[in-house]
């Protein structure tokens, strides 16, 4: 009998026949992770839609793990949105995310999953954290009020991973890690007019203004806050890289019991400048105006991704190229919606 084929990657031999569960496989990040896994030759990738599996239902999650028996888990499922959505639905953001994380992480442990990657968010760090924000800034100050419920849920997910490692790392070989991405954009994004993040919201707004021949486009806030952006397929590549790191090498570079690691592009841009880039990408020729009555959010959010760079990962797609790809994706989604109508 021939041995199962395996891939030596990032210091860790992975069995290409391992069953891998990607929670949130149809979302922007989850679908990018699936693309990366398939590109690297993995054949047994499992996913469930929300209609097929409600991750807030503990019994349903346990049944899924009992039946499918995944060997690795990428926890990319989450309720996400921009400032408007976080302000409008705070109860949903904290409840849904807490339940999904608790159910999936605990079920993974109960069913013997040793390797799990939890996806958090840069909003876990204090609103006025020193820039760039390093991993040890966690729990050192007050969170940004506009997304505090979501941030608290994500912090709980990080601490769950750390706690399961602490209690079961030696006895069960538990190795649960967390990645904290900066603002993501790219194929599969949500372009909802009010509940989306800044890049997809700007793409839609400028595109619609171009079609309507509008004289101006209004941007929320002053345009002065600075944000960091990362193309989603770069994020997915980072996820596989972190999962593939040898446990001993990973622990040698991180603090004891630390489960989270930052993933960012390493540079940020003012929202006003970003708007200019999106305007150019879309081909809109009108004015940009700022609604200063709307909230800005945190003044700056730049991740310190030095640790991940040290561990061998760097992004491949710059912002200008990423925006061009994102706009093409938006146009493709528009064509699909038009066909369905």
From TrEMBL:
Pathway: Nucleotide-sugar biosynthesis; GDP-L-fucose biosynthesis via de novo pathway; GDP-L-fucose from GDP-alpha-D-mannose: step 2/2. Residues 20-248 form the NAD-dependent epimerase/dehydratase domain. It catalyses: GDP-beta-L-fucose + NADP(+) = GDP-4-dehydro-alpha-D-rhamnose + NADPH + H(+). One of its GO terms (molecular function) is NADP+ binding. It holds the Pfam family Epimerase. Keywords: Isomerase, Multifunctional enzyme, NADP, Oxidoreductase. This is GDP-L-fucose synthase.
């Amino acid at each position: 009998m021939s041995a199962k084929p395996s891939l030596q990657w990032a210091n860790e031999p992975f069995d290409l026949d391992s069953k891998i569960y990607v929670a949130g496989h149809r979302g922007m990040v989850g679908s990018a992770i699936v693309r990366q896994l398939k590109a690297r030759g993995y054949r047994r990738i499992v996913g469930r839609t929300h209609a097929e599996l409600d991750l807030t239902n503990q019994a349903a999650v346990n049944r899924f793990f009992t039946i499918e028996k995944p060997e690795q888990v990428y926890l990319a499922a989450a309720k996400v949105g921009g400032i408007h959505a976080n302000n409008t639905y705070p109860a949903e953001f904290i409840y849904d995310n807490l339940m999904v994380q608790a159910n999936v992480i605990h079920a993974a442990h109960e069913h013997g999953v040793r390797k799990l990657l939890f996806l958090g968010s840069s909003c876990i760090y204090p609103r006025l954290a020193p820039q760039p924000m390093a991993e040890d800034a966690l729990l050192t100050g007050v969170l940004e009020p506009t997304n505090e419920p979501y941030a608290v849920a994500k912090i709980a997910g990080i601490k769950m991973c750390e706690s399961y490692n602490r209690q079961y790392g030696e006895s069960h070989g538990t190795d649960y890690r967390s990645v904290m991405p900066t603002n993501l954009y790219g194929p599969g994004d949500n372009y909802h007019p009010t509940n989306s993040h800044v890049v997809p919201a700007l793409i839609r707004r400028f595109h619609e203004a171009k079609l309507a021949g509008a004289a101006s486009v209004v941007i929320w806030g002053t345009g002065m806050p600075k944000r960091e952006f990362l193309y989603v397929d770069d994020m997915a590549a980072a996820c596989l890289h972190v999962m593939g790191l040898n446990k001993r090498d990973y622990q040698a570079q991180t603090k004891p019991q630390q489960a989270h690691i930052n993933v960012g592009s390493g540079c940020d841009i003012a929202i006003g400048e970003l708007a200019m880039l999106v305007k150019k990408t879309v081909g809109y020729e009108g004015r940009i105006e700022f609604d200063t009555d709307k909230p800005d959010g945190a003044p700056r959010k730049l991740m310190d991704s030095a640790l991940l760079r040290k561990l061998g990962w760097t992004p491949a797609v710059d912002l200008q190229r990423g925006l061009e790809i994102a706009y093409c994706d938006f146009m493709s989604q528009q064509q699909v919606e038009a066909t369905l109508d």
